[in-house]
Amino acid sequence: MVDRRTMKRKKNSHASAARWLFLYTALLSLVGLIFVFEGSIIESYRTFGTPYALITQQLFGVFIGIGAFALALLLPSKIWTRLGTPLYIFGIICLSLVFLPIIGLELNGARRWINLGFMVIQPVELLKFCLIASFAHWFAKKQNIRSFLFLSAIPLTLLLLQPDFGSTLLVGSIAIGIIFVAGGSIKKLLVAGLFCLPLLLLAIFGSSYRLERVKTFFNPSSNTLSTGFHVKQITLAFGHGGLFGQGIGNSQQKQSYLPESSTDSIFAIVGEELGFVGTSLILILFTLLFFQLYKAAMGLEKKPESRLVVYGILFWFAGQTFLNLLATVGLIPLTGEPLPFFSYGRSSLIMILFASGVAIRVARENT
What we know:
Layout: H1 2-48, H2 53-74, H3 78-82, H4 84-96, E1 104-107, E2 110-115, E3 120-121, H5 123-141, H6 145-161, H7 165-181, H8 186-205, H9 208-218, H10 227-241, H11 266-298, H12 304-328, H13 346-365
Antiparallel strand pairs: 1-2, 2-3
Helix pairs in contact: 1-2, 1-11, 1-13, 2-13, 4-5, 4-6, 5-6, 5-7, 5-12, 5-13, 6-7, 6-8, 7-8, 7-12, 10-11, 11-12, 12-13
C-alpha cells in the first residue's frame, strides 16, 4: 500500500512539474519577446531603417523554436541519450565549421557563427544539448573520468579558439555539474576543476579584449570609453529604474547609450523599465522554472540517463542565467552569455525551447 501511495505521489509530482514547466516556459518566452522588441527598436531602425526588423527575425526564431519544442514533446526522450555518441560528433563538427572561411563568420575578432544563407546560427547553442545528451549517456553507462575529461577537452578547446570565454565557462560548469549528480567523488570534482583551471586562465590572458574586461571589473572607472563605458551604462539603467521602473517603452538607455541592449545587456533594460519590483518578479519566474526542473530530475532515480539529461538542462539554464545576471549587476566580468528566453538570438531561443520540450517530455513520461 505504501509503495502504491509513493508511486502515485511521484506520478502526480511529475505531472505537476510538466504542467508548471510548460507554463513558466510560455511566460518567460512571452515576456522575453516583449523586451527583445523594446531593446532592439533603436538598433533595428539604425541598421535596417525600420524598428521591426530584429523583432521579425526573432519571431522567425520563435516559430522554429515552437516546432522544435513540439518535436521534443512528441519523440520519446530516450532517443536523445541513445544518440549520445552521434550527437557528440555532430556538435563537434558544427562547432568546427565556424573556422571555415566559406561559411564561418568573424565578428569583433571572434569566429562563433555559421552563415546558412537564410539564417546565421551559433553552433555552441546546438553543442550544449548535444554534450548534455552524450555526457548523460556516458556517465549512466561508464563513469570513466579520464575519458570524460578527454571528451570535454575537445569542445572546450574549440570554444577557446573562437574565442568564447562565456560558453567555455558554461560548458565546463555543466560538465562538472553532471559529474556531481552522477555520483562523482570529491576527488573527481577536484580533478575536473583542476582540468578546467588552466583553460580558464588561458581564456582570460590569451585575449587582450577579455583581459580588458577583467581589468574593468576590478576598476570600473578605467576604460570609460570602451569596456568601462558598457558597465557604466548598465549601472545608469538600473539607477533610472528605481523601485517601480520607468514603464515599458520608456527606457532612456536603449536610445543608443547602452551597448548590446537587445542581447547581453537586455536585463538592464528590464531593470530600467520595470524597476526593482518588476525584475524581482522576473527572477522569481526563473527560480520557479529551475525548481521544477530540479523537481522533475529528483524523481528519476530509476532512469539515470533521463535524470542526467534533466539535470544537465537545469545546469545549462541556471548557469547561463547566473552568468548573464551576475555580469549585468557587476559581480563578475562581462561574459557575453545571453539571458535565456530574453536575449535576442534565434539559435539560443530555438535550443532553449527545444531543451524545455525535452524536459517536459521526460516529466510526462513518468506520470
